[in-house]
Amino acid sequence: MLILGIETSCDETSAALVEDGKNILSNAVFSQIEIHKKFDGVVPEVASRNHLIKIIEIIEEAMGSVPLADVDAVAVTNGPGLLGSLLVGLSTAKGIAFTRGIPLIPVNHIESHMYAPHLVNDIPFPYIGLVASGGHSLIFRADSFHDYELMGTTIDDAAGEAFDKVAKVLGLGYPGGPEIDRAARGGDPDFMKLPRMLAERPEDRYNFSYSGLKTAVAFRMKGMTLDQETVKNVAASFQAAAVGALLLKAGNAVEDTGIKRLVVSGGVAANSLLREKLELMKQAGIEVFTAPLEYCGDNAAMVAGRGYADYTAGKTGDLRTDAYSRLPFVKKGKRVFG
Ligand code: KG4
Ligand code: ZN
């Protein structure tokens, strides 16, 4: 089954052709990073306008010489994300599906991040999943694509958001994740003593507080002269604490459930220190799966892949075909997806 995936939830305009959820024929991505850089962050209205400008060109690039008649369904991100941006992808996808008379598969953005490592790996269930992106930080237990339970999340900022904010305080550019990753190279991770995130609170065994970490960094930076050496050391200290929290909390979930399989995705999964540490986890006997760098950040291949998993399991009926900006599947108390 050939699926055209479309992704416009934030600042990447992307389209991809993926066969049977695995065979990636194309994955065209236009990143708006250069456009938003001068604002030090994503400006929603500017983002939606640029999606409008690029969407057709990017779909054409993804299609290459494949005729539209060969496409069996269109999968599209319908949220969570920036509403105006989502609407561009969603309206375009609806137009294609309607005129071709093929199914439209709405895809949850976080679920598509969760799917990314499956694009290039055969991952058995159950596993512990970790999604760390600019908008979300989640730990969950997955028993299948459609049976998983949220174990922990952030109580305030997301991991990527903290990278972006600390980068700003350090005078580094947007997006902060790659900038801090670069700046931290060769820096001293023990330069700044930072708290172990919510480690002492049993009720927060799988939860994060990245706003707390960001505040701790800002507080300890007071009075410091930000020369190159200091920036490098602060970046290294923050990165070690931020990555350490992801590993600590995911490690807790692995330990408590006895499921020695960890699947890591989302923009922050591109972080080089995190990837290094995950290699060490492998050596300690935990099976670890991640996505290659190009599928960590926002891309349409993961949308097409997730769309295939949903469609073939008959799990698309309960998803909305309009755009939404918030995560709809988190219920109070027991948090269950999908
Ligand atoms: O998943 P994603 O592309 O978009 C969202 O759904 O949010 O994640 C973007 C986030 C940004 O906050 C960015 O700073 C972060 O991922 N990021 C990184 C790295 N590359 C991107 N964070 C840490 N290290 C990186 N190398
Ligand atoms: Zn994303």
Draw up the topology in text.
Layout: E1 2-7, E2 12-19, E3 23-31, H1 33-37, H2 44-63, E4 73-79, H3 83-100, E5 104-108, H4 109-120, E6 127-132, E7 137-144, E8 147-153, H5 159-169, H6 176-183, H7 210-221, H8 228-257, E9 261-265, H9 272-283, E10 287-290, H10 301-312
Parallel strand pairs: 1-4, 4-5, 6-9, 9-10
Antiparallel strand pairs: 1-2, 2-3, 6-7, 7-8
Bound molecules: 5'-O-[(R)-(carboxyoxy)(hydroxy)phosphoryl]adenosine and zinc ion.
How does this model look, in words?
It contains ten helices and ten strands. It folds into two domains: 2-114 and 295-312, ATPase, nucleotide binding domain (Nucleotidyltransferase, domain 5); 124-290, ATPase, nucleotide binding domain (Nucleotidyltransferase, domain 5, 2-Layer Sandwich), CATH 3.30.420. The longest helix has 30 residues, at 228-257. The chain is of the alpha/beta class. It has helices at 33-37, 44-63, 83-100, 109-120, 159-169, 176-183, 210-221, 228-257, 272-283, 301-312, and strands spanning 2-7, 12-19, 23-31, 73-79, 104-108, 127-132, 137-144, 147-153, 261-265, 287-290. β2 (12-19) and β3 form a beta hairpin. The protein has a five-stranded mixed β-sheet, sandwiched between helices. The chain has a five-stranded mixed β-sheet with strand order 8-7-6-9-10, with helices on both faces. The model is unreliable at 328-338 (pLDDT under 50). Bound molecules: 5'-O-[(R)-(carboxyoxy)(hydroxy)phosphoryl]adenosine (KG4) and zinc ion.
